[in-house]
Amino acid sequence: MSDALEADIPETIETSTPPGTGDSLSTEAVITDKKAIEEKRQKIVEAISRTAKIQLIKKSRALYWDAAHQTRIADVAPGI
């Protein structure tokens, strides 16, 4: 794993499994910094814009489109 990717590893918070659930596996909540998500999203949008040779405009937090509103991309992955 490269140093750049290691910097993107989210912080984890361990929680215990409630007694009596019969599940021996522990659950883990992952909290990712919102700024880190937005930075990663911006890199993805820039890469798609370059590849598709279109200028994408931010419509909402996770939706981008071109000026004619014919090409759209959406981020559907929670917490990238």
Walk me through what this model shows.
This protein has 80 residues and is α+β, with helices and mostly antiparallel strands. The chain has one domain. The protein is 29% helix and 22% strand. The chain has two helices and five strands, in the order αββαβββ. The protein has a three-stranded antiparallel sheet, with no helix packed on it. A two-stranded antiparallel sheet has the order 1-2. The chain starts with a helix and ends in a 6-residue tail after the last strand. The N terminus is likely disordered.
Write the layout of secondary structure elements.
Layout: H1 3-6, E1 11-14, E2 28-31, H2 34-52, E3 57-60, E4 63-65, E5 72-74
Antiparallel strand pairs: 1-2, 3-4, 4-5
Shape: elongated
Give the rounded overall mean pLDDT. Answer: 76
SS content category? alpha+beta
Number of domains: 1
Q: Which residues form runs of ≥5 with pLDDT under 50?
A: 1-6
Range of helix content: 25-40%
User: Number of helical runs?
Assistant: 2
The sequence of SSEs as H and E is: HEEHEEE
**Number of β-strand runs:** 5
Strand line-up in the sheet with most strands: 3-4-5
The largest sheet is:
3 strands, antiparallel
User: How much strand?
Assistant: 15-25%
The N- to C-terminal Cα distance equals 17 Å
Rounded to the nearest angstrom, the radius of gyration is 18 Å
